[in-house]
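SUBJECT: A protein chain and its fold
Encoding: whole-number codes for local backbone shapes
Chain under study, with its fold:
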Amino acid sequence: MNCRLFTWARMGLAGLLASVLLACTVNPPKDVTTVRPAREEIARFELNGRMAITQGEHSNTVRVHWEHTASADLVRFAGPLGNTLAELRRDGSGAHWTGSDGSTYEAANTDELLVHLTDMSIPLDRLSRWVLGLPDTQMPFQNDTLGRMLSSTDNGWTVHINRYENEAPSALPTLLDAEGHGLRIRLAIEDWQL
């Protein structure tokens, strides 16, 4: 009797584990009828996702919450369990970094600040265009049959949009890779708010 109970418990645990794993890997399809404004008209956005940054043999992955307007950015970086690692703010007074330990750093702009902190040139101003699927039209770029950016070259960076939220021409990217200056950035966007 105890063996039978143990077998049922193992089967139940295996089923529960399979359900949990399946729930983590299957994303429900997005509603294709979602109508977004034209990319060029989007003046502000919020996104949540995961960012992986690779430089040579070193790689880091963080959760990202990004609030963007033309005049300001607020980017919160968190660990896999949601613990805040740092916050990056850009406004009229410059760029500001606050670490989880309370340390603060300031610079005239985000590019300068990020180079100082990480020895990496991460172009936040360009990234804010790339996440919307907006190429620099003065540089080479390629669109898909719906007119959405697939790849672009921008100031030493190569950008590939690997996935959009749905098949609508106004759909926003949900997975992009940017590579340049010895870095590779992969951003998986889980949620958009305009």
Residues 43-82+122-193 form a domain with the outer membrane lipoprotein receptor (LolB), chain A fold (CATH 2.50.20.10). The radius of gyration is 20 Å. Residues 2-25 form the longest helix (24 residues). Residues 1-26 have pLDDT under 50 and may be disordered.
